[in-house]
């Protein structure tokens, strides 16, 4: 009998169960505090938001606008030949990532972390006159249509979506995070001439599209069509749970599965690493073959009976900008789509993107198994869309991926022709030349559009026209043909560069104010720059960790030529008696960790979903199994700094570089990465309260009833703790920086031991619905769920579609004294699912929120100002913020004496005070907002940032 047909006994599988989080926390920070004591909150929080449209020019061409992402400001410059003269410096929201000029005197700014749009008037003293509140994490904005409507991309979630003030707006309401087949990309449409009198403006409509969270927008030359693209849209890959794979390593010997269908065979292998250590049983990645119409693996085995959905992979959509209807869509544009631009002459659409190769196994530069993904993670491309025609053009087709540094014939000069991570673009007025910012190459690619459209681009020839930039990380470009100039924003040094197109050389660099710590600035290039250490010039850590986050894919980065290493992490239920009893009770027929040893990491680990690099502090070892606890810099179960440094091997092993970073370079990378934070949870109420369902879920999560394990009287005296509550394993203790994680691992009756991961960003994993019968999940089969948006869901390999499906695991089966309740267990499962989607995080949900009071919304926005003031006085605990703080620092910005002045709110006295000490009462500020030109913008900043912003964010 196969493992898949073992009796459905109550098994504990917390490692997989706990792998439900989107990513095992890769932790440790040079941070702010230690667990031994509290400290003052940092005066700056790094969020690493990706810029989308960071530059724009006024319609008359006289002014350049730039978003200053870390500083939370809009910068305006008078344009000259070879020079920029600053004319305005306007506080907006947190993490501005895009800007568009509606007129010569009105500019709209997209604030990624504030979930808002700042409307800036340049008349009189430049300042924000209205703040529009939108969905979670807005990214881009364009104006289009006969009415000049504003189109804004956001995720299909966020508190404003369900705000009563827009309840009558078509498309508003519940984002239905647990409902199959729901579009996950939103476009909020506003009429600039009729914003309404509601608190945050009234959109005309919220349009939704069947793709993942969107990023870029573009407009057709006639202004009547808007194009919207998903961001991390996938590539028709998914994971087959190991419970659908036969035991052993005979890929052609099938077996009978629990649903009486036939599995094609066993693991792909190799059955052991090159040292002869037996490999564990793992899941595998399959890709849909559009030619054959089947889900296939690298051996072309068909897995159709183990996938319960389809992936249309629709990436780009067309909108009638006047009728506000979807008029078209195209698929297979790319895996990660960064930006779009329309050719002003032909109207053809160019999409900068990367195409991931995650269907290829192994991080192994020796290619001992005959293949590896080393040095070939994601191809940089421009995809040309013309009607329904989709033509991907590889920007680095000159690279010989079959050769790595050290191989005979490897050409190190090929990196000179490479463009890594293509982002912002612009096209010349005659439509003949496309300029693309290569974020990971510090270059502007200058491409012949005819070569793109005929797919005849030769990078070795085209690269002679590429433009090198200082600073690094170009994210956006704007063309100024009247002055024969190009402007680029370089994120690494937070500056604007002027390029003379005649000489194709940089002629000036204008630095913007940057409040980031020096360690952040110095370490950032290590994440993105594909040039150092000798490689083909395309791959970087951000090839998978997009803007320090994740790519929503799984990768099998096992290494057949690696060695088994020791695991120093304490293992719950890891004593030999518990292991033996667990194997007996759970019917484990394959050797634990491959070798049957408890405290080891086998290099053949199997597929794992990409982990976020955000929110890394205070949770011990990194990677799903915690295997970076053991590495080149040492062995330690709880030292986050050491664990991140141990990623040094990934440069040669995965990126395919000739050399590894030095210890100093890795420490710089570590110092940067361990300061990047997760954003506030957009599912949780802004007042940090829970809904009725979330409250019931929280009560079960933190209650006394064990959620899994064997709660048998007397057994604990023999084994130690043998049953755990949800909180007993996924500890929630903000004072220790624990948000669902712990520093321990756990044996749960499965094939490998995993570290217990965090639960802070599970809401970002929504989008896959459909799962076949698997032994461990009680044989529950959803049936075919039809088209879905994502191919990866929850658990370490992403094979479990929803949190609810996960809670149907055997480990949670109702018993008299453990598991979900015997009476109506599904109701409690749904409640806990709702709670986990709204899980606590290092920052309160109010952080970033803002509102502008003016003479239009003075009455309707008053309650929101009161809420911001209340939360600024509410106690909050976060180790990352220094311990005991309040939920936010509230700052009010208002024009006074010809400048925008910032006031910091003091909850005790209910007054607002400037850096110079002058104060205004709450009533006085609200009264000022009634006067046009004295609109007041209230913004909740991260605790600790308020004094800095008030003191340094001076205006001109």
How would you describe this protein?
The strands form 17 sheets. A six-stranded antiparallel β-sheet has the order 47-54-50-51-52-53, with helices on both faces. Strands 1-2-3-4 form a four-stranded antiparallel β-sheet, with no helix packed on it. A four-stranded antiparallel β-sheet has the order 5-6-7-8, with no helix packed on it. The longest helix is centred in the last third of the chain and has 13 residues, at 825-837. It is α+β, with helices and mostly antiparallel strands and 956 residues long. Helix 10 crosses helix 14. The protein contains 17 helices and 54 strands. The chain is globular and about 80 Å long. A hairpin with a 4-residue loop joins strand 51 and strand 52.
What would a concise description of this structure say?
With 956 residues, this protein is of the alpha+beta class.
How do the strands and helices of this protein lay out in sequence?
Layout: H1 14-18, E1 55-57, E2 63-68, E3 73-80, E4 83-91, E5 96-101, E6 106-111, E7 116-121, E8 127-133, E9 141-144, E10 149-155, E11 185-190, E12 205-209, E13 214-219, E14 225-230, E15 237-240, E16 255-256, E17 262-263, E18 284-289, E19 294-296, E20 314-320, E21 325-331, E22 336-342, E23 349-356, E24 378-386, E25 389-394, E26 422-427, E27 433-438, E28 443-448, H2 449-453, H3 459-462, E29 467-468, E30 474-480, E31 485-490, E32 495-500, E33 505-511, H4 518-523, H5 525-528, E34 554-556, E35 565-566, E36 571-572, H6 576-586, E37 600-601, E38 607-609, E39 630-631, E40 634-635, H7 640-645, H8 649-655, H9 663-673, H10 692-701, E41 708-709, H11 715-719, E42 723-724, H12 726-729, E43 732-733, E44 738-739, E45 745-746, E46 754-755, H13 803-806, H14 825-837, E47 850-853, H15 862-873, E48 875-878, E49 883-886, E50 889-896, E51 899-906, E52 911-913, E53 919-921, H16 922-928, E54 936-941, H17 945-952
Parallel strand pairs: 36-45
Antiparallel strand pairs: 1-2, 2-3, 3-4, 5-6, 6-7, 7-8, 9-10, 10-11, 11-12, 13-14, 14-20, 15-18, 16-17, 18-19, 20-21, 22-23, 23-24, 24-25, 26-27, 27-28, 28-29, 30-31, 31-32, 32-33, 34-38, 35-37, 39-40, 41-42, 43-44, 45-46, 47-54, 48-49, 50-51, 50-54, 51-52, 52-53
Helix pairs in contact: 10-14
């Amino acid at each position: 009998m196969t493992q898949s047909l073992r009796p459905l006994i109550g098994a504990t599988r917390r490692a997989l169960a706990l792998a439900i989080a989107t990513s095992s926390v890769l932790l440790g920070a040079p941070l702010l505090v230690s667990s031994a004591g509290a400290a003052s909150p940092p005066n700056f929080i790094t969020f690493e938001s990706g810029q989308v449209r960071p530059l724009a020019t006024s319609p008359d061409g006289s002014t350049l606008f730039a978003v200053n992402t870390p500083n939370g400001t809009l910068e305006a410059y008078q344009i000259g030949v070879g020079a920029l003269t600053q004319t305005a410096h306007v506080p907006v929201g947190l993490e501005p990532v895009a800007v568009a000029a509606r007129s010569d005197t009105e500019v709209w700014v997209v604030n990624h972390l504030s979930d808002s749009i700042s409307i800036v008037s340049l008349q009189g003293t430049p300042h924000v006159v209205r703040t529009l509140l939108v969905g979670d994490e807005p990214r881009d904005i364009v104006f289009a249509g006969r009415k000049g409507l504003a189109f804004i991309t956001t995720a299909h979630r966020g508190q404003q979506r369900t705000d009563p003030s827009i309840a009558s707006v078509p498309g508003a309401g519940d984002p239905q995070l647990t409902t199959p087949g729901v579009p996950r990309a939103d476009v909020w449409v506003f009429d600039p001439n009729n914003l309404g009198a509601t608190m945050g403006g009234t959109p005309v409509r919220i349009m939704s599209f069947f793709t993942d969270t969107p990023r870029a927008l573009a407009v057709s030359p006639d202004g009547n069509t808007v194009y919207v693209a998903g961001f991390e849209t996938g590539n028709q890959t998914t994971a087959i749970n190991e419970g659908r794979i036969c035991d052993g390593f005979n890929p052609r010997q099938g077996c009978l599965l629990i649903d009486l269908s036939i599995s094609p065979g066993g693991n792909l292998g190799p059955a052991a690493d090159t040292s002869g250590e037996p490999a564990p049983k793992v899941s595998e990645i399959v890709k849909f073959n559009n030619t054959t119409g089947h889900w296939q693996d690298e051996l072309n085995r068909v897995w159709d009976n183990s996938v319960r959905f389809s992936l249309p992979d629709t990436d780009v959509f067309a909108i009638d900008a006047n009728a506000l209807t979807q008029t078209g869509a195209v698929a297979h544009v790319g895996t990660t789509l960064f930006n779009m631009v329309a050719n002003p002459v032909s109207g053809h659409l160019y999409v900068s993107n990367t195409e991931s190769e995650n269907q290829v196994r192994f991080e192994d530069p020796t290619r001992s198994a005959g293949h590896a993904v080393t040095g070939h993670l994601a191809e940089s491309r421009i995809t040309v869309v013309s009607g329904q025609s989709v033509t991907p053009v590889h920007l680095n087709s000159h690279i010989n991926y079959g050769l790595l540094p050290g191989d005979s014939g490897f050409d190190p000069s090929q990196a000179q022709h490479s463009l890594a991570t293509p982002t912002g673009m612009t096209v010349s007025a005659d439509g003949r030349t496309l300029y693309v910012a290569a974020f990971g190459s510090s270059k502007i690619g200058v491409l012949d559009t005819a070569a793109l459209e005929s797919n005849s681009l030769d990078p070795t020839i085209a690269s002679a026209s590429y433009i090198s930039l200082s600073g690094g990380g170009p994210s956006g470009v704007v063309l100024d043909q009247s002055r024969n100039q190009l402007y680029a924003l370089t994120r690494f040094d937070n500056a604007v560069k002027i390029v003379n197109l005649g000489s194709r050389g940089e002629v000036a660099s204008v630095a913007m104010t940057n409040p980031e710590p020096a360690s952040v600035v110095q370490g950032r290039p290590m994440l993105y720059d594909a040039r150092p250490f000798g490689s083909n010039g395309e791959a970087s850590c951000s090839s998978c960790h997009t803007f320090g986050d994740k790519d929503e894919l799984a990768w099998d980065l096992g290494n057949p030529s690696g060695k088994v290493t020791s695991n120093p992490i304490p293992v719950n239920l890891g004593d030999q008696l518990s292991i033996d009893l667990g194997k007996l009770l759970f019917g484990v027929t394959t050797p634990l960790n491959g070798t049957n040893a408890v405290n080891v990491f086998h290099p053949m680990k199997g597929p794992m979903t990409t982990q976020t690099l955000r929110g890394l502090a205070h949770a011990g070892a990194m990677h799903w199994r915690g295997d970076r606890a053991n590495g080149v810099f040492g062995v330690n179960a709880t030292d986050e700094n050491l664990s991140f440094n141990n990623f040094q091997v990934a440069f040669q092993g995965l990126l395919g570089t000739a050399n590894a970073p030095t210890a100093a370079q890795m420490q710089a990378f570590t110092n940067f990465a361990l300061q990047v934070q997760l954003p506030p949870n957009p599912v949780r109420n802004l007042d940090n309260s829970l809904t009725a369902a979330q409250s019931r879920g929280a009560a079960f999560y933190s209650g006394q009833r064990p959620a899994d394990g064997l709660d048998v009287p007397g057994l604990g005296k023999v084994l130690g703790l043998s049953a755990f509550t949800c909180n007993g394993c996924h500890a929630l203790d903000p004072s220790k920086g624990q948000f669902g994680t712990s520093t321990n691992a756990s044996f749960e009756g499965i094939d490998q031991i995993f570290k217990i991961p965090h639960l802070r960003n599970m809401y970002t994993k929504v989008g896959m619905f459909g799962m076949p019968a698997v032994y461990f999940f009680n044989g529950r089969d959803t049936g075919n769920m039809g088209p879905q948006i994502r191919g990866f869901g929850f658990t370490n390999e992403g094979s479990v579609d929803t949190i609810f499906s996960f809670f149907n695991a055997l480990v949670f089966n109702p018993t008299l004294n453990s598991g979900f309740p015997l009476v109506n267990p599904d109701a409690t499962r749904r409640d806990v699912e709702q709670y986990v989607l709204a899980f606590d995080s290092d920052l309160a949900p109010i952080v970033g929120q803002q509102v502008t009071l003016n003479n239009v919304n003075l009455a309707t926005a008053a309650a929101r100002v009161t809420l911001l003031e209340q939360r600024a006085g509410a106690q909050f605990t976060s180790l990352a913020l220094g311990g005991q703080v309040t939920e936010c620092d509230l700052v009010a910005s208002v024009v006074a004496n010809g400048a925008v002045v910032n006031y910091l709110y003091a909850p005790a006295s209910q007054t607002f005070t400037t850096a110079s000490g002058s104060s205004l009462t709450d009533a006085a500020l609200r009264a000022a907002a009634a006067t046009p030109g004295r609109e007041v913008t209230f913004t909740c900043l991260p605790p600790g940032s308020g004094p800095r912003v008030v003191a340094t964010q001076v205006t001109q």
